[in-house]
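Handout for the seminar on molecular recognition.
Each group receives one record of this type.
Step one: identify the two inputs.
Step two: read the structure output and locate the region that could contact adenosine-5'-diphosphate.
Step three: write two sentences on what you found, then compare them with the reference statements printed after the record.
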Amino acid sequence: MTGWSDWTAADTVAEYRVPVEGDDKYSRGVVGILTGSAEYPGAAVLGVEGASRTGIGMVRYLGDAGAARFVLERRPEAVTADGRVQAWLIGSGMDRSARSPELRAQIDQALGQDLPVVLDAGALDLAGSSAGPAVLTPHHGELATLLSARGVDVDRPTIAAAPEEWATRAAELLGCSVLLKGSTTHVALPGGGGYRVQAGPPWLATAGSGDVLGGILGALAASRSPEILADPDRLARVAAAAAFLHGRAGERASSGGPLAALDIAEALPATIASLLADS
Ligand SMILES: NC(=O)C1=CN([C@@H]2O[C@H](COP(=O)(O)OP(=O)(O)OC[C@H]3O[C@@H](n4cnc5c(N)ncnc54)[C@H](OP(=O)(O)O)[C@@H]3O)[C@@H](O)[C@H]2O)[C@@H](O)CC1
Ligand SMILES: Nc1ncnc2c1ncn2[C@@H]1O[C@H](COP(=O)(O)OP(=O)(O)O)[C@@H](O)[C@H]1O
């Protein structure tokens, strides 16, 4: 595809994998999550919560040991032991300038697997270093920083003025899908074109909202891993579906009033049930 299209509820339902009778937790998908840090343990909790509430066979949280305690307090279902995964979410709540050699080795091992990978926040600089298909999830400020580091002189207001164009340029330059967050979220494909997703109410502009989105996307990517590996462009569709679910869950959580990031995650099951019922 080369054009841009508006993403719909029906498109989202088509990307959501409903469990079938013969499923087990592994066939539904396992998402590996490397997020959080001593400074931002909350980002780990929010991403794990977003993934769990999206519906997935297993969430494997393998990030910061201190953050893992908070993750397990909130979600005892999360598994903190190593093992197989079908997609990775890396970077929310991480500071790339504080990456230890041990964490770098752990990230490199994840990126070396031929699996779909979601790169957020403190892992955006790793664009182009994964063996499998990747999607980046920057906000405007992060995209400006990322492009500037790759020799493209652009600032945040310039990106805000033309998000479709800049998401496209980034996807082409970096060779992966780019989900550029905003009041309209733009998901660009590396070969051109993409999807516009109505992000939801402005109440969604709250700390940790993007961390929940990362969890939703990680879970959807794990559940659609075989399809993404067969057709890497599918990752952009899965990313658009994640943004759509995030926005509709935000609407449900808000009901016209304020919300906190965790409320978005908590609204996901009813949001998904309603979308499936209407399809
Ligand atoms: N509870 C937790 O643990 C939480 C943890 N979190 C974690 O914190 C880390 C830092 O993430 P961050 O996005 O807050 O700051 P940062 O990367 O310095 O941004 C760079 C510059 O970009 C701009 N800018 C910022 N936001 C923008 C936006 N939405 N849309 C457009 N522009 C925006 C702004 O530029 P300025 O306004 O100064 O021009 C800013 O200076 C990250 O790892 C994240 O996961 C958070 O999710 C919160 C909850
Ligand atoms: N004005 C807005 N209207 C609707 N959604 C918004 C608006 N501003 C931001 N969002 C959404 O909120 C989320 C913010 O993510 P992000 O900037 O990464 O925040 P954080 O780092 O605090 O988690 C994104 O999903 C974005 O699309």
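Reference statements: Residues 234-254 form the longest helix (21 residues). Residues 36 and 42 are 7 Å apart (CA to CA).
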